[in-house]
Amino acid sequence: MQALQNRQALFDYFIDTRYIAGMVLSGTEVKSLREGKASFNDSFCVINSGEAFLKSLHIAPYSHGSHSNHEPLRDRKLLLTKKEIGRITAALKEKGYTLIPLKIFFSDKGLVKIEIGLGKGKKQFDKRESIKKREAEREIKRKGA
Fold it and tell me: Can you give the pTM of this predicted structure?
């Protein structure tokens, strides 16, 4: 299974710091992630009373699941150290910082991991600049190949 990327986040935010966290999931959620059935639309992370949570990440119900299938949009707890949560909390108190999920992947041991980033939102002119840079790189690849 390939990693699931949140491409829109890199377009909308400047990512300063990245963290790797574990996720508390049920069995059917893991099976659905192995099939690649997840959507990052409008998902974000919050920190409540010293714990990190991932909100509104849509993991589709497992196709072969029974009545015990999971709820697609439930809040999921992220597993980070106290030191990391402290750093993130301090940064979130600064103006303009947001905690965004960037990528979901499986570790070498088969555990589900999520890469989250601490980022600031881009303005409209920054987004246009990103588009120009991407188009220029495409043009260089096209001429080089």
Answer: 0.79
User: For residues 78 and 9, what is the distance between their CA atoms, to the nearest angstrom?
Assistant: 19
CATH number at residue 82: 2.40.280.10
> Long-range contacts for 70-78 (Cβ within 8 Å, ≥24 apart)?
70/26, 70/28, 70/29, 70/32, 76/23, 76/24, 76/25, 77/23, 77/24, 77/51, 77/52, 77/53, 78/21, 78/22, 78/23, 78/24, 78/45, 78/51, 78/52, 78/53, 78/54, 78/114, 78/116
For 3-58, the pLDDT digits (tens) are: 888 888 888 888 999 999 999 988 888 888 888 888 888 888 999 988 999 998 88
Domain holding 119, by residue range, is 4-144
User: Which strands form 76-79's sheet, in the order they lie side by side?
Assistant: 4-5, 97-106, 112-121, 13-23, 76-79, 51-55, 44-48
Count of domains observed in the chain: 1
